[in-house]
Amino acid sequence: MTDFSTEYFTMNEEQAKEYAIKRLNYFQPDAELSCKEIGDGNLNYVFRIVDHKHKDSIILKQAGPVARISDEFKVSPDRNRIESDILKIQYQYVPEHTPKTYQYDPIMNCFAMEDLSDHEIMRNALVKHQVFPDFADHITTFMANTLLLTSDVVMNHKEKKELVKTFINPELCEISEDLVYTEPFYDCERNEVFPATRPFIEKEIWQDEQLQLETAKLKFDFMTKAQSLIHGDLHTGSIFIKEDSTKVIDPEFAFYGPAGYDIGNLIANLIFAYANGKAEIEDEKERHVFTNYLLTTIKDVIDLFKEKFNRIWSQSEIEQVATYKGFQAAYLDSILADTAAVAGLELCRRIIGLAQVIDITSIEDEAARQQAEERCLRAAKQFILQRETFKDGEDFVALVKSSFQ
Ligand code: SR1
Ligand code: MG
């Protein structure tokens, strides 16, 4: 028996239930609780605790000392503080797309948050080929607000620098520096290359010196461009969705980085869903509906982001020099170039590196998977090498279409 107040340890289901009774000021005294560990991510433990008597539930998220995906990654459980703090900031800006958090515990490195079990992880829904027509509208509200309102364009610079300090996140940044920017671009032992795709990767990725040079420049941007308080891992596995609601979860990779990192990450993962639809949907009409939905969503994500970004800019009090003629357009252009580059990097890392995505790995037919992977990698190269040329949604869609022909 423990009162959870002295020493950190990773909890099992029984202990998480006991924690809820003793430490969470949430359930009523006569609650009848059950608890299940439901985490399916790479890093943390997620407990769903249900009060059957009063039909209520809550999520308790605890950070362990190593990543679930591999104990090679030793990651401080303090990331739980970062996640709980940034969820509060995001909730302030976009409550409609952020889960509500309740209690953070710096000893047990866990926090409680709203149970979103009536939603589904978006990646799982997309591999079942479900569509969400309001998603682009929802996610661009989230991104435009969180990315612009935390930047030097709008924030008091000293307050912004305080946030930069609070969200220094060296261990999780190192994971992205390694897994996104470094390992996919050489024959690293930790990569998980699908054998049929290996010849393509060797020739088109590992032997392309221009591509390597560009990824080096981009890695240094990631490490030095403290532009916005980014989510840092905004893929479709970090989004809970249902028909009329979108909630962004899992921001433990948050830090001050390039705004385009979040947008590009999302675009790449929509392309994985597109690749899955192309490979897996046999009925031509159904395939057309699903893949067209994704192309429209990719276009809308870019165009609505631009529209909302410009609207927030025009309604905010702006840093003096940022009002100079041409600055706003140049600033947005650079976010779009970063978006394209990160879309390319994310496409490469999920196919070549560790931590792959079911959109691709669930394609059982070997030739179909190889084709899907090579198409994604072909698009990825252009996104990285030609990143300055992507100006609107149609530019992104045109590259996806031509790469999948
Ligand atoms: C060791 S963690 C592997 C990956 O899972 C997370 O979702 C991030 O994308 C990270 O790169
Ligand atoms: Mg995650």
Supply database-style keywords.
405 residues; Phosphorylase Kinase, domain 1; Aminoglycoside 3'-phosphotransferase, Chain: A, domain 2; 2 domains; five-stranded antiparallel sheet; 10 strands; binds 5-S-methyl-5-thio-alpha-D-ribofuranose; binds magnesium ion
Description:
This protein has 405 residues and is α+β, with helices and mostly antiparallel strands. The protein folds into 2 domains: 13-113, Phosphorylase Kinase, domain 1, CATH 3.30.200.20; 120-403, Aminoglycoside 3'-phosphotransferase, Chain: A, domain 2 (Alpha-Beta Complex). It is 51% helix and 12% strand. The chain has helices at residues 13-23, 79-93, 122-127, 135-149, 157-166, 170-179, 198-206, 209-224, 260-280, 284-315, 327-352, 358-361, 366-385, 393-403, and strands at 33-37, 44-51, 56-63, 101-105, 110-114, 120-121, 228-230, 239-242, 245-248, 255-257. The strands form 3 sheets. A 5-stranded antiparallel beta sheet has the order 1-2-3-5-4, with helices on both faces. It has a 3-stranded antiparallel beta sheet with strand order 6-8-9. A hairpin with a 6-residue loop joins strand 1 and strand 2 (44-51). Helix 9 packs antiparallel against helix 10 (284-315). The longest helix has 32 residues, at 284-315. The radius of gyration is 21 Å and the shape is globular. The mean pLDDT is 97. Residues 42-43, 67, 69, 73, 175-176, 179, 233, 355 line the site of 5-S-methyl-5-thio-alpha-D-ribofuranose (SR1).
